[in-house]
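Retry 2 of 3 after timeout on previous attempt. Resubmitting structure tokens to design endpoint.
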């Protein structure tokens, strides 16, 4: 191959801790060539994003620094460039799309203005030419109605549209390298596919090189020519994308591939990275016969929850003289869920999944229909009756960090709902129960007096689960409760949820946009589209033979 566009040689990046510099990226070497898409795969803390920040010259001073090695872009040592030269490099020659577009875009500035700013900084175009260029960029990234989006604020457009604005911003100055850092993590499977296809199209059209960073190896295999696998700050494997995906050599790479639920084989328990590293992988398949026998028992009992013709309507405020518009987020939805069952609820953002979950939890009242729990209509209960029922119907949130009080220790957070519902005789007994629950979710007594910020994302999700099961509920709504987790941590949490269900007889409503995860977890799957039920069937049957075009489109978008 020709001379690399970007060359990273023996790179070590260190973090300052207690007056010492400790390596977090160790002796890493790789190259990026012209007109190439390079995938970097690994979990949180593997060093993927830190490496990309070093390439951009964005390592925070006094916290992180390059202690060994070099980063060379077109023969220039990036670490030796002045601040002015780095500013010209960023946006002009090397650009970056960040993981979370909502926090990357300025909420107080219109989308068009934010992209125009880049062109003002790096080009000599007039204001009129800049506006025309921004509209062209919005068309290029396939934003609907580019003129309207030019004048909208970030909160007025969808997540997928925000990510497209970020891509437009990143490619505005025709960079030679585009770094995409987890650009699809929080997006629906269909939007994720659209973004991947868009990046591939842009790369072919402009000839730029892309570094695509993700924790999802199957997603990276769909876009990258070559792949680098990082683990604990080191590159453990690199090579041709197809070769690595079909024939991984390193144990960690094998674990990353196997930890993701398969669409073809149903396992009783997902293998985790720990299983692979300790050589304790034991995959047991669930046969269709076993599943059918289990379902025969499940569905022979009366339903635990019955949702009948439920609707949730919102009225938009149209001002003094305008006519108020109504919007049905949930439209005539009916289904039953049985004790010990997991009902999967899937659909794209805005389809009404979470609204339906909130209506069942009585966090947001339905405007029509009935919700029967053990034969009792929840919509007709008084405030005190609903509070008493909170013990039986619980939720595990998507973001455990924002759902835990940062000022309370883990022990206090779990004891709090026990006190509210007057469980157990005294605090001593409650503490013993909390320690037993922490052990159940893979934590220990030593974590009791720690605060949420002292834990990783996966550990915080375990704390969220511990807080939920402390009340011994019957029905648990899991609202995107694993979507922000790394593949292997996700596998651990899914295994934990299934284990708890088996031991305590929990019933789950499992809401997610990740269709592979929903299939693995669910007995039945309910597909929602624009507030209505599009399709509902036994999970394996629905994925094998989807009846509706919408369901077929969702399943076709799953990375394989």
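Retry 2 succeeded. Sequence:
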């Amino acid at each position: 191959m020709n001379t690399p566009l970007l060359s990273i040689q023996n790179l070590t990046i260190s973090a300052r801790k207690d007056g010492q510099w400790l390596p977090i990226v160790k002796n890493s070497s790789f190259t990026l060539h012209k007109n190439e898409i390079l995938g970097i795969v690994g979990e949180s803390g593997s060093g993927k994003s830190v490496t990309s920040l070093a390439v951009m010259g964005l390592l925070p001073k006094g916290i992180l620094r390059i202690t060994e090695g070099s980063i060379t872009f077109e023969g220039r040592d990036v670490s030796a460039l002045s601040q002015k030269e780095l500013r010209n490099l960023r946006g002009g020659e090397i650009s970056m799309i960040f993981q979370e577009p909502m926090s990357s875009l300025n909420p107080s500035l219109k989308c068009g203005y934010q992209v125009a700013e880049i062109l003002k900084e790096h080009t000599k175009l007039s204001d009129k030419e800049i506006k025309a260029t921004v509209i062209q960029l919005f068309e290029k990234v396939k934003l609907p109605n580019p003129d309207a989006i030019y004048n909208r604020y970030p909160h007025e457009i969808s997540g997928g549209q925000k990510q497209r604005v970020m891509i437009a911003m990143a490619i505005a100055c025709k960079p030679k390298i585009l770094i995409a850092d987890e650009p699809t993590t929080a997006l629906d499977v269909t939007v994720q596919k659209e973004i991947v296809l868009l990046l591939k199209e842009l790369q072919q059209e402009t000839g730029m090189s892309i570094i695509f960073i993700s924790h999802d190896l199957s997603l990276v295999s769909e876009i990258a020519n070559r792949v680098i696998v990082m683990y604990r700050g080191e590159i453990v494997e690199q090579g041709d994308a197809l070769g690595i995906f079909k024939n991984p050599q390193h144990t960690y790479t094998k674990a990353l591939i196997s930890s993701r639920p398969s669409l073809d084989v149903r396992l009783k328990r997902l293998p985790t990275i720990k299983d692979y590293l300790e050589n304790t992988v034991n995959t047991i398949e669930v046969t269709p016969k076993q599943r059918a026998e289990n379902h025969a028992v499940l569905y022979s009992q009366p339903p635990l929850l019955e949702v009948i013709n439920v609707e949730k309507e919102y009225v938009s405020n149209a001002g003094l003289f305008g006519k108020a518009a109504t919007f049905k987020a949930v439209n005539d939805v009916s289904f039953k869920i049985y004790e010990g069952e997991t009902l999967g609820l899937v659909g794209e953002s805005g389809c009404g999944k979470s609204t339906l979950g909130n209506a069942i939890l009585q966090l947001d009242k339905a405007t029509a229909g009935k919700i029967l729990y053990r034969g009792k209509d929840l919509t007709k209960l008084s405030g005190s009756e609903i509070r008493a029922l909170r013990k039986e119907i619980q939720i595990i949130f998507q973001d455990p960090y924002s759902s835990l009080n940062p000022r309370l220790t883990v022990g206090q957070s779990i004891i709090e709902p026990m006190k509210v519902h007057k469980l157990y005789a005294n605090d001593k007994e409650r503490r013993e129960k909390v320690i037993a629950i922490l052990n159940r979710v893979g934590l220990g007594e030593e974590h009791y007096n720690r605060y949420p910020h002292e834990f990783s994302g996966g550990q915080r999700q375990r704390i969220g689960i511990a807080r939920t099961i402390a009340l011994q509920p019957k029905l648990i709504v899991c609202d995107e409760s694993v979507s922000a987790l790394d593949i292997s941590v996700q596998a651990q949490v899914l295994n934990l949820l299934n284990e708890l269900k088996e031991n305590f007889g929990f019933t789950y409503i499992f809401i997610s946009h990740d269709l592979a995860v929903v299939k693995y977890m669910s007995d039945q799957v309910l597909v929602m589209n624009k507030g209505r039920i599009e399709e509902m069937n036994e999970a394996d049957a629905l994925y094998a033979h989807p009846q509706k075009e919408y369901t077929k489109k969702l399943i076709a978008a799953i990375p394989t």
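Attempt log closed. The chain has a mean pLDDT of 89.
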